[in-house]
User: Fold this.
Amino acid sequence: MPAEGSSIRVPVEERLFSLVLALLATDSGLTKSEILSTVQGYSQKFSHSGDNSNLERQFERDKDDIRELGVPLETIDSPGQAGNNQNLRYRIPRGAYELPSDITFSPEETTLLNLAAMVWREGSISGESRRAIIKLRSLGVATTEPVLSYAPRVRVRDAAFEPLSAALEKRQVVRFAYLKPGDAEATVRTVAPLALVQHQGRWHLYAEDVDSGTNKTFLLRRIVSQVATLAKTFPAPPADTKDKALLELEDVWNSHTAIVDVQPGTDAATRLRRRRGSSVAAPGSLELHYSDTNIFADELASFGPEAVVVSPPELRDAVRTRLERTAADHG
Amino acid sequence: MAERAKPRQAQDKLAFLLSLVPYLMDHDRVSVSTAAQHFGVPEEQIREAVRLIGVSGIPGETATYQHGDLFDIAWDDFEDNDEIVLTNLVAIDDSPRFSAREAAALIAGLQYLSALPEHADRDAIATLTAKLSRGASAEPSQVAVEASAADETLALARESVTKGLQLSFDYLNSQGQAERRRVDPLRVESVDADWYLRGWDHVREAVRTFRLDRISNPEITTESITHDASDVALPDKLFEGSADDLIVTIDIAASAAPLLADYIPDNAEGIEKDGRLRTTVRVSHYHGLKRLIAGMPGVATVVEPAEARAIVAEWAAAGAARYHA
Assistant:
């Protein structure tokens, strides 16, 4: 029996591991006081007579950390004592914890999943994909070497990405300042974040505007304030929300058409011809799709004299204004 | 952030312990080096985890962690032969499920890579996605990445390596000069929607990086490949600095600086004033710079050298002039 107030220091991972083992091994669940007084890592600090509030707070944080790993730590009422918080019992139901035994991955599938995990090399999502791969390796499947080596990468450099993805997970309403191009000032938006999707290399937030109740898409790079996470929560959106968000962006992309003349043999001619959805409208003239006039105007302006917008007029004006601005800024 | 770093590490270690146990259960006897290789971790990390597992368990009937309530390993095999044999098991039977975010990270990654020639079978991706969703402890998070566009160059690059024959293509460099290049493909890389081929360039006799959308008329040649990925050390960074690089001072909106992170040297000094950052970028020639700066109107401005300013001004003015014609 560990001595009360013993000074033996138990590493955090040992305490967490012991907690998971103890809760997996119980069907009827353990009460908080049973956990704190017996489980390795807590029991050493448990006081049978005194105040255990520090230890209780520790336990609350540990529960969060464990749940974040996808471990279904649940609470149940003690028999005959429903509603009595002190007698809540904690357990990890085996069926919800274990990967269903009929889920297996072939070596080829494992290789694809390793590649998919490599895509994330920044932010908390890189940690999540790394952990997913550790769990995958738990199954003991060897991988096959791909013929050609790959180093794919999706960036998550927008400062708003992390707070939004955390809020998305906890289904909490957020508030931020959003600067629409052409507006002089940013406006404050209060929204329920429903999905984060990357389209044409840019991250978008698909969210429900709390005031109007309508769904809108926000470009992360136009969020100009910190993202404040509010206490208010909202119900889980349907499972296909992210697909819907991508589809809406795709519809916008398809509905915007520009005619751009390109000088033959130039970088503009090669790259714009290779752009997704591009087609030849006439010799030296391309029909192109785009999502956003301002973003596409930036892209076209980089080609300088190699590309000229024929239509639509607002895109033509936007590119011309940009080129004039750059010329003036460097004059 | 520092406060958060610690639990993250502990979480990673916990995920590792929960994953290692079922792996060891499936292997009656496994060497530390085999396990380390399988998980892609240092051997010492395996030993550390095994030592912890060997003394861990459940409180049990007596709530005092009696011997039978603990994992046990064949300690002699472990200490003397660096081999792991679990001799007593508790609590854990199987691998853990993925968390909602873990599953979502892999699903979004798969989606993004769906244009790779390895993914020719679309049904395979759908099957994998379904397995990941079912293998997660909650509905995967709502994070998605648009599928990359299929590209014939990727398929040819793979074929080139499979057949051991060089790939040739027309390539327009950013100075606007077109030439036929002959390449041994080494690695396909991407950053968001942009894709690159890195290969041994037989004309330059060096490793070069090619933007896929600047490649045209690719074909497999009859000449054999002389370099492969195993004998060429590829730097991790897509854009490697070289001693010949030109250093340019720019002013950039601080919020937009991450967009140029690849061009800003690690040791660059930055002075921020009124939301604008004055820093340096490294470019191989001003013709690349003028495209970069013209694509960030009002956001980034070249300060010096004067020659660079003039080239950017000329480029933008020539572009604007086409609208006045």
